[in-house]
Amino acid sequence: MTAILNQQPVSNDKELLSLALYGFASFTSFYVIDNHVKGLALHIERLINDATALFGVAPSTECILANLKSFIAKNKALNSFGARVTIFPADFSLARPGEVSSLNILVTGRSPSKPSEQPLALKPIAAIRTLPQHKTANMTANLMARAEAQRDGFDDALMIDDGIITEGPTWNVFFGQNKQLFTPSLDCGILPGVTRRLLLDCAIHSGLEVIERPIAVTELNSFDYGFVSNAMIGVQAIAKVGERSFDCDALPINALYQQYQALKSDHL
Fold first, then answer.
1. Each residue of 234-257: pLDDT tens digit?
2. For 29-68, what is each residue's pLDDT tens digit?
3. b/e sequence 102-115, b meaning 16+ C-beta within 10 Å
4. Cα–Cα distance between 22 and 14 in angstroms, integer?
C-alpha cells in the first residue's frame, strides 16, 4: 500500500515506516568537525549498550563507523555538521518485538548552528524521561516539558521527579558553590551523557570537588552558579531557575568550557 504524507505519496519503505510509527529505537548525537568527534568512543559505546538493552543485539563498532563514513562520503561539502546515529530493528514486528535478529543503522545530519551563548532561563517541571538511562527515540515527555516551559516564557525546562532535579529535555545539569560542583547522580534516573562524563573529568583536573548526588529543588538557593551540557551545545550557563538567579560569569563555568573545547577529538 502507498503511504501518504501531506496528501502526497511517499516512499513506502517498510524499515523507515516502523521507525516513524513506533519509535522503537536508540540513538546518539554529536558534532563532526573535520572528521573529528569529541568522545567518539563513548558515543559508540552508548549505541552498543543501549541497543543491547533494548533489542538484545547490537551492531559492531566497525559497522557503526562504516555507516558514519558513508554519510560523510555522500556529504563531502560539509566540513562540520551535527550527526545523529539511530539504531532500530530490521523487519520489525509490532506483535513480536522481542524477536530482533538484525538492526538498521540510520545516519542523519543537520547543518551546524553556532550554539547560543545566551544563559538559559529554566522552568522547573515535573517530568520523567522514558527509560531514563538509555537514549531512546521516545522523547514525548521531554518535549512536552520543553514546550510547556517555552509557552510560559522560559527557554527550557528543568525536569523534576518528586522534588528531585534530574536533567533537561536534551541535556544534563550542574550546579556549583565555590569550588564544589554538584550534579544529579545516575541513580536519580538521568541519561548518562557523554559530555557530562567528559566534563566531570575536566572538573576534577581543574581542581573542583565533584559531588554526584540527588539535588532537591529546595536546594537551589544554596548554589552560586549552574550550567547545562550536551554534545551539541557543550556548556551553557543558567541565568535562572524559576525566579532564582545565578551568576552566569562564574569562573568555573568559563574554565570548564575552555577545558572542554581543548579536549582532543577522535578521528573517524
1. 999 999 999 999 999 999 999 999
2. 999 999 999 999 999 999 999 999 999 999 999 999 999 9
3. ebbbbbebeeeeee
4. 12
Cα–Cα distance measured from residue 24 to residue 54, given in angstroms and rounded to the nearest whole number: 8
For 206-211, the CB contacts below 8 A with 24+ separation are 206/252, 206/255, 206/256, 206/259, 207/179, 208/176, 208/179, 208/180, 208/181, 208/252, 209/179, 209/180, 209/181, 210/181, 210/183, 211/180, 211/181, 211/182, 211/183
Q: Considering the chain, what is the average pLDDT of its residues? A: 93
Cell matching residue 25: 529505537
- Give the 3-state secondary structure of residue 239: strand
**Which of 166, 170, 210, 160 is closest to 184 using CA atoms?**
166
- The residue with cell 510560559 is 152
In the block, residue with C-alpha cell 548526588: 213
Kindly report the pTM of this predicted structure: 0.93
pLDDT of amino acid 11: 77
Cell 536519580, located at residue:
188
The one-letter code for the residue type at 219 is: E
